[in-house]
Amino acid sequence: MKWPVSLVAGAVLSVLFVVVALLSFVWTPHDVATLAIADKLQPPSPTYWLGTDHFGRDTLSMLMVGARTSIAVAIVAVGIGIVVGVPLGLAAAANRGSLIDEIIMRGNDLVFAFPSLVIAILITAVFGPSAVNAILAIGIFNIPVFARVTRGGALSIWTLDYILAARVAGKGKLRISVEHILPNILNLLIVQGTIQFSLGILAEAALSYIGLGAQPPTPSWGRMLAEAQTMIYTAPRLAMWPGLAIVAMVLGLNLMGDGLRDLLDPRVRRERA
User: How far apart are CA 122 and CA 143, in angstroms?
Assistant: First the structure.
């Protein structure tokens, strides 16, 4: 089996950032919580490989810990979407046209009416800004996404002959959904999960940029960009490094998502055969 180039390239980029994030748990070139005002705005050097910010903090260390923050927020937020959204989508598909289906789908429409940024502002107004609240905001927005994808994929399978045979054999809707429907839509969920993960990275950076995400002293790529905007002319590298990190991470995840779709979608395989 030939692996799509986009899958390989995306996986390499994504794994690189995951390794860097895991490495930050045990080692960083410098302590990100230590301020060294005497070394502020230092250019790249053997001591500070990517230079320092206006507080004298090592930029590389901040990027490493920031990767950990962004990935953790995105993973948990996507997990919330999967854990809640997939069962809702399966239930809606199993009861197509019923009141249950209408309630679930109209609830999804209601959530879609409010962008994740607006939801984050609402949550922050009540509970205050934090990484946890950013996770909740992004996770809530992911729920209807996975519910719609699950329902759409499941509806096409409910019409197949082997599902009718399972119903004749006495299997209930719940058992059919778990044993027959869910395994056959896993490829859709995997691809969608990869896409939502990249969107979660962007959403976390956006929320941190406006001060609604991870709070100091926890590093975040979005807040690094926000802090660097006032020094864009004097020290443009402070905005360049976190910007490049966000672009590379999102690009890698999107490439991996496209590659997984090409690999797992039988229609694409038939077209290329």
Answer: 17
**Cα 238 from Cα 228, distance rounded (Å):** 5
Q: What is the mean pLDDT of the chain?
A: 90
Record the tokens describing residue 151, joined without a space: 């329902």
Please report, for the domain that includes residue 111, its CATH number.
Answer: 1.10.3720.10
- Domain count of the fold of the chain: 1
Residue-range definition of the domain harbouring residue 233: 72-272
Measured CA to CA, the distance from residue 203 to residue 115 in angstroms comes to: 10
Q: Are 142 and 108 in contact (CB under 8 A)?
A: no
User: DSSP letters along 104-153, please?
Assistant: HHHHHHHHHTS-HHHHHHHHHHHH-S-HHHHHHHHHHHHHHHHHHHHHHH
Q: Indicate the pTM of the whole model.
A: 0.91
Q: How many CB atoms lie within 10 A of CB 16?
A: 14
Which tokens is 45 given? 């050097």
The most distant pair of C-alpha atoms in the chain lies apart, rounded to whole Å, by 77
CA distances from 35 to 27, 30, 44, 53, 239 (A): 18, 10, 17, 10, 19
Tens digits of residue pLDDT in 114-124: 877 788 778 87
* 97 within some domain: yes
